[in-house]
């Protein structure tokens, strides 16, 4: 039986990945910063909490990472931990850098020192590219990050590339663009829109306040993206891959699909409020996932339009319970 450790098991991606690996008969060790019962809501929703060995550890504590890796000696390690909100990274730059870059370095150092024959997945981000003036990002496009989050993710990406080359460690970075689902917290714009629109449809709310709604993103469906993470670790040679749908839509379009699906006119309810603007923001993101399609045989089935409707379906089902 293969052993996998997932750092950050309680988040959206951690939960979907744990579900995927359990389905492939892995022994799954899930690491979370806190063992508070309410932290495992996602695992409970997927009905897998009791199938995972849960361990408490802070990934930016070297000793703690060392102990866990030495105890379980996993075949695969997925680093999905760390502060994941771009907006919050402007208010918490230190926490963002430590939980992403320092934590990633801890893992790489532990693997190097213990000489573990492990395969490592590092959660990278399309946010690293910054604004690209209409260009489409591929794996060769240089990073020009514009947020503390993008800077931290870029550092982690280069750490992985450096350790792969210098010490022959099997380590991959998945450069994932926005990926959403019903497990997304409302801190992210898609879930904020879906939850508010469903409340408006039920007559329980009458407005939705947002920041910059002219931005454009490539939104995919998270359960598909965790499959790509696993696929990266099954290849012969470690490499980095962009994971995206290849289809970009504006936030206005996303809002319109959600509201239309609920028979509502979004223009009546959506208002903008400066408190949700960021010091710097990425206007348009376009991604080319061609390498993942060619080398991993991975291709997104759902695009942002589908994601909007699937999130509404899930929210309506969930609200009824
Ligand atoms: C690839 C990357 O993808 C995600 O980062 P993100 O793109 O910043 O995601 P978001 O949902 O917070 O914002 C999307 C856009 O929507 C705009 N926006 C308008 N009004 C609101 C608003 O009210 N709330 C929020 N959150 N955003 C708003 C906001 O200004 C931004 O332009 C993370 O998964 C991250 O971990 C990651 O790696």
Automatic annotation (TrEMBL):
| Pfam families named among the record's database cross-references | GDP_Man_Dehyd (PF16363)
Keywords (A to Z) from UniProt: Lyase
Catalytic reaction list: GDP-alpha-D-mannose = GDP-4-dehydro-alpha-D-rhamnose + H2O
**One biological-process term from Gene Ontology?**
'de novo' GDP-L-fucose biosynthetic process
Does the record carry tRNA-binding as a key word? Answer: no
Q: Which SUPFAM superfamilies match?
A: NAD(P)-binding Rossmann-fold domains
The answer on whether this UniProt entry bears the keyword Lyase reads yes
Concerning its family, UniProt says: Belongs to the NAD(P)-dependent epimerase/dehydratase family. GDP-mannose 4,6-dehydratase subfamily.
What name does UniProt use for this protein?
A: GDP-mannose 4,6-dehydratase
């Amino acid at each position: 039986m293969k052993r996998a450790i997932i750092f950050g098991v309680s988040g959206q991606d951690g939960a979907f990945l744990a579900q995927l690996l359990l389905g492939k008969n892995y022994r799954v060790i899930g690491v979370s910063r806190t063992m508070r019962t309410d932290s495992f809501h996602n695992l409970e929703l997927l009905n897998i909490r009791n199938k995972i060995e849960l361990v408490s550890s802070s990934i930016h504590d070297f000793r703690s990472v060392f102990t866990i890796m030495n105890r379980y000696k996993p075949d695969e390690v997925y680093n999905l931990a760390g502060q994941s909100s771009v907006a919050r990274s402007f208010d918490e730059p230190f926490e963002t850098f430590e939980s992403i870059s320092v934590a990633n370095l801890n893992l790489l150092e532990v693997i190097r020192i213990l000489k573990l024959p492990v395969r490592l997945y590092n959660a990278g981000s399309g946010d690293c590219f910054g604004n690209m003036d209409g260009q489409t990002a591929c794996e060769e496009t240089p990073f020009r990050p514009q947020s503390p989050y993008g800077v931290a993710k870029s550092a982690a990406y280069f750490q992985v590339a450096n350790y792969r080359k210098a010490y022959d460690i099997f380590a991959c970075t998945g450069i994932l663009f926005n990926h959403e689902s019903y497990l997304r917290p409302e801190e992210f714009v898609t879930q904020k829109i879906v939850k508010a629109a469903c409340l408006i449809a039920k007559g329980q709310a009458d407005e939705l306040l947002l920041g910059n709604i002219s931005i454009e993103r490539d939104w995919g469906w998270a359960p598909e993206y965790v499959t790509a993470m696993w696929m990266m670790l099954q290849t012969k040679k470690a490499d980095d891959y962009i994971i995206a749908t290849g289809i970009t839509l504006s936030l206005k379009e996303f809002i319109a699909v959600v509201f239309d699906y609920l028979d509502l006119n979004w223009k009546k309810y959506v208002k903008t409020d400066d408190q949700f603007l960021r010091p710097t923001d990425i206007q348009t993101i376009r991604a080319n996932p061609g390498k993942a399609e060619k080398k991993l045989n991975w291709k997104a089935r759902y695009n942002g339009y589908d994601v909007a409707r699937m999130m509404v379906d899930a929210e309506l089902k969930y609200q009824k319970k």
